[in-house]
Design goal:
15 helices; 362 residues; 16% strand; Rossmann fold
Length: 362
C-alpha cells in the first residue's frame, strides 16, 4: 500500500510536527511519502500527476493552507484515488469571531448581513463550503467523539468519520525533579488566542503558595505579536519577570528538561479542538489541570488523565491544591496517564490509521 501524506512539510507548527512523527510510525507498516501542502495547492496539475500514482492521498486539513479561492477544490478534483482528510479543528462555532448563526434580521436585511459576514471571514466561509461538500473525501478522520458528533450534526454521514486520537510520544525525563522551593507550573506550545491568559494571571495572583510559571514556547505567527506584547506588559506590571518566564522557541531536549521540573501543567484553554501540547504533557507524565471544554472533558471522563476546573480562578486554584495535597490522587492519575500513553502511542494510532486506509481501498 502506497500512501501520500499532504501537510506543511517545512512549517514550524503542530500539524507539521504531528505529521512527521506519524510518517515515521507509518513507514514501519506501509510505503509512505510526504508532499508539501502549499506546493500541492499551487502546482495542482503537476503534483496530482504524482499523487495519483499512490493508492491513497491523505491531506492534513487546515483552511489557511488553501488561502486562494478554490485551491482545495482544484486539488481534490484532480485527485483520482481515495482521499482521506484529517480535521484537526472542529468547532460548533469558531472561536474568536462573532457566530454567523447569531446574525440578526430577516429577509434581505439578513441576507445582506450574511453576505458581508462571509466576505469578512474568508476562512470560516471556506470551511463551511468544504464542509458542505464533505471535504471531497472518502473518509474523514478526527481526534475526538465530540468532533465526530459535530460533523454528523452538519450532514456528514457517520460511516464517513473515523475517530483517531492525537498520538502521544512518551518522553523520558530521567530522574530529575522540581528544583528549589515552591510550586512549579508550566504550559507548552505557541502563544495563541485560544489559551485563557487572563485566567492564568488571576490564578497566579491568588495562589497562596510560592510559585514559578514557565511558558515553554513562543510565537508562531506574526499576528500573535500583539498578544505576546500584552502578556509581557501584564508580567511587567505585576513585577513577575523572575517568576513568570516565556522561553521562546526551544529544542525538544530543553523543553523536556523544563517539563521535568514541572509539578503541574496548566491547560487553561478558552477553546481548543485538538492539542499536540497537551499530548506532550501526557507523554512527559505531568499532572494536568485543564479548563473544562469539550476536548478536555472527553479525555477526563473517558480516561481520568487530568483534573478539570471551571474557567474561574477559585476553581482552578482549588483543583491545583487538591492535586498537590492528595498523594493517592496523584498516584492514580499517573497510573491512568501511563495506561493512556501505552494505548495511544504513534505506533498504536498508526495501526488504526492503516485499518482506515484498508477500508478505503477494499
Amino acid at each position: 500500500m502506497k500512501v501520500a501524506w499532504v501537510f506543511p512539510v517545512q512549517q514550524k507548527c503542530g500539524i507539521s510536527f504531528y505529521s512527521h512523527a506519524y510518517i515515521n510510525a507509518l513507514a514501519q507498516l506501509i510505503t509512505i511519502e510526504a508532499f508539501d501542502v502549499h506546493a500541492c495547492a499551487i502546482n495542482t496539475t503537476k503534483t496530482c500527476a504524482v499523487l495519483n500514482t499512490f493508492d491513497i492521498i491523505h491531506i492534513q486539513y487546515e483552511t489557511s493552507f488553501f488561502s486562494k479561492k478554490n485551491q482545495f477544490e482544484k486539488l481534490c478534483n484532480r485527485v483520482k484515488k481515495p482521499l482521506i482528510i484529517t480535521l484537526h479543528e472542529v468547532y460548533e462555532e469558531f472561536p474568536g469571531v462573532f457566530p454567523r448563526s447569531q446574525i440578526a434580521g430577516t429577509g434581505i436585511v439578513r441576507k445582506s448581513k450574511e453576505y458581508l459576514y462571509d466576505l469578512r471571514h474568508p476562512f470560516q466561509t471556506m470551511y463551511a463550503r468544504h464542509l458542505s461538500h464533505r471535504f471531497h473525501a472518502k473518509k474523514i478522520a478526527v481526534h475526538a467523539q465530540y468532533q465526530k458528533a459535530l460533523l454528523i450534526k452538519n450532514g456528514i454521514p457517520e460511516k464517513m468519520v473515523s475517530v483517531i486520537p492525537v498520538p502521544v510520544t512518551p518522553i523520558d525525563l530521567g530522574t530529575q525533579s522540581p528544583a528549589g522551593t515552591g510550586l512549579h507550573l508550566s504550559s507548552t506550545g505557541f502563544i495563541n488566542s485560544n489559551y485563557d491568559y487572563q485566567l492564568l494571571f488571576e490564578v497566579l495572583e491568588n495562589l497562596r503558595r510560592e510559585w514559578k510559571f514557565t511558558w515553554i514556547g513562543g510565537l508562531r505567527r506574526d499576528e500573535d505579536i500583539p498578544l505576546l506584547n500584552h502578556i509581557r506588559k501584564e508580567i511587567a506590571q505585576r513585577k513577575w519577570e523572575h517568576t513568570f518566564i516565556i522561553t521562546g522557541w526551544v529544542p525538544d531536549d530543553f523543553r523536556d528538561s523544563l517539563l521535568s521540573q514541572t509539578d503541574i501543567y496548566l491547560a487553561l484553554f478558552s477553546a481548543r479542538s485538538s492539542s499536540l501540547s497537551l499530548a506532550t504533557a501526557l507523554g512527559a507524565r505531568r499532572l494536568i489541570v485543564a479548563t473544562d471544554i469539550p476536548g478536555t472533558n472527553e479525555l477526563a471522563l473517558n480516561h481520568h488523565i487530568m483534573s478539570l476546573a471551571a474557567p474561574n480562578s477559585a476553581d482552578v486554584i482549588n483543583t491545583i491544591n487538591r492535586l498537590v495535597s492528595d498523594t493517592a490522587l496523584k498516584e492514580s492519575r499517573l497510573r491512568e496517564i501511563d495506561t493512556y500513553c501505552r494505548n495511544h502511542s504513534f505506533n498504536q494510532m498508526a495501526r488504526q490509521l492503516v485499518d482506515v486506509y484498508k477500508e478505503c481501498i477494499a
